Amino acid sequence: MTAIAPASNHTGSRTTRLLGAAVLLGLVALILLGFFGAPEDDEQRDAVRMIFIHVPSAIFTYVAFVTTAIGSVMWLLRRSIWWDTVAGAAAEIGLLFCGLTLFTGSVWGRPTWNTYWDWGDVRLVTTLILFLMMIGYLSVRSLGGDEGATATRAAVIGVLAAAILPIVNRSVEWWENNTLHQKSTLTDGDLENLTLFTLFVGFAVWGLFFAWSLIHRFRITWLERELRAIDLDRALDERRAERDDV
Amino acid sequence: MTHLGYLLVGWGTTLAAGAAYAISLIRRGRRLSARVPADRRRWMTADDE
Fold first, then answer.
1. What is the ipTM of this complex?
2. How many domains does chain A contain in total?
3. A183 is a domain residue
């Protein structure tokens, strides 16, 4: 018979510890490769090293918001609390990644485009709209009230936000005359081998961090739900006790 | 190295934000799990610990 370990007061597990260790090791490798391994670019010089954090942030923004959309659809179709929890967890992480995408892109834009921001650039503005939509999504989730109704309202926003992802992604192709942003870094084939390898290390680190965060955030939401259920049970017990006293 | 200031701001902010978020998750998890009875924390009593 397998012994059951005593419960611990945290949301970690063997899986998350392995993921966390892999993230830290990967980060060390990414910093070394990003600053000392990968060569500078002929045009952008060392500013190109921003690619190793900006592009993974952007790609995993998409991954997170697609996860939110899948969770939202599953909630709408099956009323699955598990999927609703996944959707909310992924949205919060996606918001972090989306914010970092906007910030690092802006900081990268100054030395390469000579501006931090351009309101006429479709990629920048659609990414900002996506960011604001996910703030709205998380705001709706935090409103409280009936959990089912809240989840349904949030799920609709989650699906709508995912619907603009193709516009964000393809905007540099569809409005190529209205963007400072370069076309797809991965498909234009201009990257040196070591630059490309470092970029994939970045993808791996961001992917591992996404998985680590998603597991922890899922468990936190689960605990919050359990606490609300406990509070509700306690309130009902008190009400019954008052009624019995009368 | 050219553009070092921009690189440090971009990388530094990204790493700091990621670390801050990770720490906040761990703290929230610890605070909440201390308040929820063990039998309602189902992933924490498995062999995965």
1. 0.88
2. 1
3. no
The verdict on residue A182 lying in a domain is: no
B interface with A, Cβ–Cβ < 8 A, is: 1-4, 6-7, 9-11, 13-15, 17-18, 21-22, 25-26, 28-30, 32-38, 40-41, 43-49
What pTM does this model have?
Answer: 0.89
- Of B9, B32, B45, which to mutate for an interface test with A (greatest number of A Cβ within 10 Å)? B32
Pairwise CA distance, residues A129 & A121, whole Å: 12
pLDDT in tens, chain A (246 residues): 333 444 568 888 889 999 999 999 999 999 999 999 999 888 888 899 999 999 999 999 999 999 999 999 999 999 999 999 999 999 999 999 999 999 999 999 999 888 999 998 889 999 999 999 999 999 999 987 788 899 999 999 999 999 999 998 888 888 777 777 776 666 666 667 889 999 999 999 999 999 999 999 999 999 998 998 888 888 998 998 888 876
Q: Does A45 touch chain B (CB under 8 A)?
A: yes
Residue-range definition of the domain harbouring residue A69: 14-173+191-239
Tell me how far apart the alpha carbons of residues A184 and A191 are, in angstroms, rounded to a whole number: 11
For A8, which residue in chain B has the nearest alpha carbon? B44
3-state secondary structure of B36: coil
Only one residue has tokens 């592009």, namely A55
Whether residue A135 is contained in a domain is answered as yes
User: Residues A184, A167: contact at Cβ < 8 Å?
Assistant: no
On whether residue A147 sits in a domain, the answer given is yes
